[in-house]
Amino acid sequence: QVQLVESGGGLVQAGGSLRLSCAASGSISGINAMGWHRQAPGKQRELVALITSGGFANYADSVKGRFTISIDNAKKSVYLRMNSLKPEDTAVYYCYAEIRNWGMNNYWGQGTQVTVSS
Could you give the C-alpha distances from 16 to 23, 96, 115, 118, in angstroms and in order? Predict the structure, then answer.
C-alpha cells in the first residue's frame, strides 16, 4: 500500500506564492518520478510539473518560469514552489508518483486546494 499526502494548499492573493509538499510512504522500493497535476472545476486534469528521481523536470507551458518542482529521494517527497500565482492557477492540485514496488505503478494523492484570488 502506497500513500501520498499533500500539504501546503490554501488561499493566496494574485501575485503571491505557495509551496506544496507531498510525501510518499508505504511499500516503496524506489521512485522513478513524482509530480503534480491539477484539476479545476469543469476542466480535465492536467500535468503541472513532473520530476524524475535524477532531477530532470518538465513543466506545463502555463506555469513555466513561475513554478519550480524539486524532489528529495531520501525523504520520498516532492515539492512545488509556486510564485506569481494567477487566478487561473486555482485548482485542486494532486500529487503523482511513479513508484517501483513489485512493479512500476502510478499513485495519486487526495489533492490539496489552491485558490488564488484576484
Answer: 24, 24, 11, 11
> Given a cut of 90, is residue 65 above it in pLDDT?
yes
CB 67 within 8 A of CB 82: yes
Cβ–Cβ < 8 Å for 31, 105: no
Question: What is the pLDDT averaged over residues 41-48?
Answer: 95
C-alpha span between 101 and 10 (Å, rounded):
32
Which residue is it, cell 507551458?
Answer: 61
Angle at 64 between CA 11 and CA 77, to 5 degrees: 65
Alpha-carbon span 30 to 53, nearest angstrom: 9
Is the per-residue pLDDT at 102 higher than 90? no
Q: What is the pLDDT of residue 1?
A: 86
Mean pLDDT across 56-78: 97
Grid cell 509530480 — which residue?
A: 35
Other CB atoms closer than 10 Å to residue 101's CB: what's the count?
Answer: 14
- Cα–Cα distance, 51 to 78 (Å, whole number): 8
